[in-house]
Structures are given as C-alpha cells and as structure tokens.
UniProtKB/TrEMBL annotation:
UniProt domain Histone deacetylase: residue ranges: 49-340
Protein name: Histone deacetylase domain-containing protein
Lineage: Eukaryota, Viridiplantae, Streptophyta, Embryophyta, Tracheophyta
Pfam assignment, any one: Hist_deacetyl
Top-level division of the source organism's lineage: Eukaryota
Biological source species: Daucus carota subsp. sativus (Carrot)
InterPro entries: HDACs, His_deacetylse_dom, His_deacetylse_dom_sf, Ureohydrolase_dom_sf
Molecular function terms from GO: histone deacetylase activity; hydrolase activity; metal ion binding
GO BP terms: epigenetic regulation of gene expression
Alphabetical UniProt keywords: Chromatin regulator, Hydrolase, Metal-binding, Repressor, Zinc
Family: Belongs to the histone deacetylase family.
Cofactors named for this entry: Zn(2+)
Length: 384
C-alpha cells in the first residue's frame, strides 16, 4: 500500500504554457530622466524609460534558460484584431490610439509614450493575452502565462494610463465571459492599483477584481481612482471590487497575510470558474517604481496560494498576465519564483541572489486587519 500523500499529478499539473511574440520588443519608450522622456541637458547618462525591452528580454531568457525551462511549453502570440478591442474599450478611444500611431506618436499622459512601433506591440500584447485565454478555454492547457508589453492594467475603457494602452488582462477576462465562463476572479499583485481592470468591470458582478497595491492614491486625470478600500464597485458590481492598499515596506509576510486573510475567503465565496493572476514584479524590494519589499520567497508563496485557489475553484484553470516590474535583473528572478510557486514545486529551483531588506511586518498586519474590518460588510466577505 502506498504511503504517498500527494495526489497523482497529470503532466498538465506541472506545466505552464507561455505565450510570447518578439514583436513586442519593438515598443521603444525612449530615454530621459527616469520615465519623463525629458533630457535636462546637464546629465551625461540618461535612464532608459523603466518600461523598456531589456526587462522583458531577461524575463524571456530566464524562462528559456533558467531551471524552470523543462516545465514550460512555448506558444506564439498574435496581434489582436481591432474588432476584438471593443469588448473592453470604446470605439472613440481605439480611434484615438490609431490616429496617434498614424501621426507618428504621442505622449498620452505622464511617462506613457506611444511611439512608432508601439501600436503594433500593443496589438500583439492584447492578442497574445487573448490567445493564452483561448488556449485554456479550449482545454489545450490549464495554466498559461502571457509575457506581454506594453503592460495593460492601468488602461481604462476610455483612456491610456501608466505606460498602458490596451488592457490585456481585461480583454482576456471579457473573452472568457463571452465564451461561457460564468465568473472570473482577477487578483492583481502589481505594486500599483489595477485601476483600468477595476474600472472595466466596476458595474459587473461576474468579475471580482482584487488588487493588492502600494497606497499611492490617485495620480492625476489619467488615474482618477484612488485605490482605497471605499472603492468597492457600483450597481450590480457593488462589493465586487476589493482594494487592499498596503503600507510602504509591506513584504513577504504582509502579502501572505493579505492573501490568506482577505483574498482567499473572498474567492471562496465568489466561486469563480476562471482565475486570472495579474503579476507585476514592481512589488519587489528593489524596484525603482515601488516601495514594497517582496522577495522571491514572497512571490513564490503568492504563486502557490493562487494555484491552490485555481485548483479548488476553477478546475486548475489559471491565466497569468505580465504587468510591471522594472528592475532589469530582479524582476526576472521574481517572475521565475512566481511560476515556481504556481507549479507547486516542493523545493525552490533558484536561490535569491540579493534579498536583504527588512520588512516592517507588524504595521502591515495591523493595516490588513483594519481593511478586513472595513470590508466585512461588503457582500462578498459578509459572514466569513
Ligand atoms: Zn506597476
């Protein structure tokens, strides 16, 4: 008689289908003072814009040549058709993007440059996310990761924001709903509020959007949402947007606490038949765009928890969509760790080369407890 406690695994349980297209490297965001595009004239060395192709090249190569590579299958992405974009975005906004491309480019809002080549890369990012979702819906694979840029989660139905033009995850979610899924949960761990995705489904009770982010508030007219706990959705969607604004310095223990204390019970009650994890490695301890303290271990844990939610609720169906993450080396390592967690591997495949920042866990935990208190009367969390 076997004493093994692990359930038998099919090969699909230990496989991630990666969707990618090299055309996305053609989005050139330029140089300047950080993400401003400005050359003040007195600096010899200007930064590459943080959302540059180098970060994605390292993510690509660590997946191709890192120790996780035997667990991955590769698939080619594709450009989205213009018609496919109207499921999430308005025609007016899409026309605005097409026109900006035709005129040679435009800065839509702070740091958000549509340059020559950017529009085609945006279409590829959107189409690649759609292709990955279709792969899961067709039953060709259970877990897919879509390596895309420009990122998408700030792009709202009517406007660009925060380096994003098209909402790649939002389009994939709407496609799932249009193709027979009843309810989709989106868990967004990018360090910034996933305001675009939240806005797209703010009046829907078919999509539970949950965002764990740095407490950065609104950042102007392109990002009017504050990401606060008060933004819980409207009309039919009341109670179906959960914001978890975490204090600066929240790290592995704080994120795990929020995932187990708030996210998992909400997903349990929602009973989704599709799980979408929106990942940004800008929640790491070394990101120039974030002030959180996640390390590879924290990302691994988030991957594990999300996988267990998918196994429990959506028959293991899980789409992972790439967003931010701007440290050129550590973002790649943290992506590797996230996917290790998603694969539920018994031991880490890579050690963390640089983690050493301390985490102020007691304050984060206090804040998460107070968020939980605030949200306890929101329908999705009532009685838990
Ligand atoms: Zn971000």
């Amino acid at each position: 008689m076997s004493t093994a406690t692990e359930a038998p695994c099919s090969s699909e349980d230990r496989r991630i289908h990666v969707f990618w297209h090299e055309g996305m490297l053609q989005h050139d965001t330029g140089k300047g003072v950080f993400d401003s595009g400005i050359d003040p004239g007195f600096l010899d060395v200007l930064d590459k814009h943080p959302e540059n192709s180098d970060r994605i090249k390292n993510m690509l190569s660590i997946l191709k040549r890192g120790p996780i590579s035997p667990f991955l299958s590769w698939h080619s992405g594709r450009p989205a058709l213009i018609n496919e974009l109207y499921s999430f975005h308005t025609r007016e906004y899409i026309n605005e993007l097409i026109e900006a491309d035709r005129c040679g480019g435009r800065e839509f809002c702070s740091g958000t440059f549509l340059n020559p080549g950017s529009w085609h890369a945006s279409l590829l990012a959107a189409g690649t996310a759609l292709a990955a979702m279709k792969h899961i819906l067709d039953g060709s694979g259970k877990i897919a990761y879509t390596l895309v840029r420009p990122p998408g989660h700030h792009a709202q139905p009517t406007q660009a924001d925060g380096y994003c033009f098209l909402n790649n995850a939002g389009l994939a979610v709407q496609f799932a709903l249009d193709t027979g899924c009843r309810k989709v949960v989106v868990v967004d761990i990018d360090v910034h509020y996933g305001n675009g995705t939240a806005e797209g489904f703010y009046r829907s009770n078919k999509v539970l959007t949950v965002s764990l982010h740095m407490n950065h508030g609104s950042w102007g007219s392109s990002h009017p949402q504050s990401g606060s706990v008060e933004e819980v959705g409207e009309e039919e969607g009341f109670g179906y947007n959960l914001n978890i604004p975490l204090p600066n310095g929240t790290g592995d223990k704080g994120y795990k606490y929020a995932m187990t204390k708030i996210v998992a019970p909400a997903v349990q009650k929602f009973e989704p038949d599709m799980v979408v994890l929106v990942v940004g490695q800008d929640s790491s301890a070394f990101d120039p765009n974030g002030r959180q303290c996640l390390t590879m271990e924290g990302y691994r844990e988030i991957g594990k928890i999300t996988r267990s939610l998918a196994d429990k609720h959506s028959d293991g169906r899980l789409l992972i969509v790439q967003e931010g993450g701007y440290h050129v080396t550590y973002s790649a390592y943290c992506l590797h760790a996230t996917l290790e967690g998603v694969l539920n591997l018994p031991h880490p495949l890579l050690t963390d080369p640089i983690a050493y920042y301390p985490e102020q866990e007691s304050y984060s935990i206090q804040v998460i407890d107070s968020i939980e208190q605030y949200q306890k009367d929101v329908p999705i969390l009532k009685g838990i």
